[in-house]
Amino acid sequence: MATRTRTTGPPDFVGVGAQRCGTTWWFRILIDHPAIRRARRRRKELHFFDRFSAREMQGADIERYHRLFPRSAGQIAGEWTPRYMRDVWTPRLLHRAAPDAKLLVLLRDPVERLRSGVLHQLTKTPGGRPELLAADAVERGRYASQLRRLREFYDEDSILVLQFEKCRLDPIGQYQRTLRFLDVADDHVPHEIERPRGTTTEPNKEPLWPDFKQALRTALQPEVERLRELVPDLDIDLWPNFAHLAVQQQRHEKARPKSEVS
């Protein structure tokens, strides 16, 4: 029996964000597709570019990155490291290593993401300082700034922005949308698509106290408003902490003179 020849090279797609937004679930159902492969050692997250905050990325590093993505004819390969979008140095380096890759971004209500993200980090670093973790979590929720950095190096058509809440409501439709973006057949139905998987922190979540919650909303609202301009199909009604922005916009549009609307 003839063996299938595999080649390596730059990844065809890279998931770049965001942490605690359902990326483990979405990557799992992507690689369930027969035409999609993950990196060597069956890893989702490579964190390949993290180290280049401490040293320069060399050509040999890029070659090593390319060797991590074997695939056969007719297949595509990629990885999903949620912090790539967060780190300011990564978009430039990712473009050097994979200029033609398609980027996947999965987002959720940034306040809810913060609640999940801080708890997740505390489980990984017992004894960690919550205030430092919370400050990092706020930065991870500045989606608009991060998306703009990505667009400095990748065309808008090369980046697909998904909403976790939409994926929960319509997993098949959003999955097919993702497959079409990646240029693979969209008729595959993955196993247990409606069952998000990952390290859940839901049982440990506590309500945010009013002062802290309002501070988060105030800090992140400008980012959400800018994100709506960058991603016109963003459904802000699905983000409970910022749904009031949709109500404000509706009132503003109703109050506009008909001459402005036309």
How are the SSEs placed, and which strands pair?
Blueprint: E1 6-7, E2 13-17, H1 23-31, E3 36-37, H2 59-66, E4 71-72, E5 76-80, H3 90-97, E6 102-107, H4 110-124, H5 130-140, H6 143-151, E7 159-163, H7 164-169, H8 171-181, H9 210-230, H10 243-255, H11 258-261
Parallel strand pairs: 2-5, 2-6, 3-5, 6-7
Antiparallel strand pairs: 1-4
Helix pairs in contact: 4-5, 6-9
What's a quick, concise take on this entry?
The chain is of the alpha/beta class and 262 residues long.
Could you walk me through the main structural features you see in this protein, from its secondary elements to its overall organization?
The chain is of the alpha/beta class and 262 residues long. It is 44% helix and 10% strand. A five-stranded parallel beta sheet has the order 3-5-2-6-7, with helices on both faces. The protein has a two-stranded antiparallel sheet with strand order 1-4. The longest helix is centred in the last third of the chain and has 21 residues. It is globular, with a radius of gyration of 20 Å. It starts with 5 loop residues before the first strand and ends with a helix. The model has no long low-confidence stretch (mean pLDDT 89).
What structural category arises from helix and sheet content?
alpha/beta
Cα(first) to Cα(last) distance is 67 Å
- Biggest sheet, spatial arrangement of strands: 3-5-2-6-7
Summed over residues and divided by their number, the pLDDT gives a mean of: 89
Computed over alpha carbons, the radius of gyration is: 20 Å
Helix content: 40-55%
By DSSP (H or I, 4+ residues per run), the number of helices equals: 11
Secondary-structure element series: EEHEHEEHEHHHEHHHHH
* Biggest beta-sheet profile: 5 strands, parallel
Low-confidence spans: none
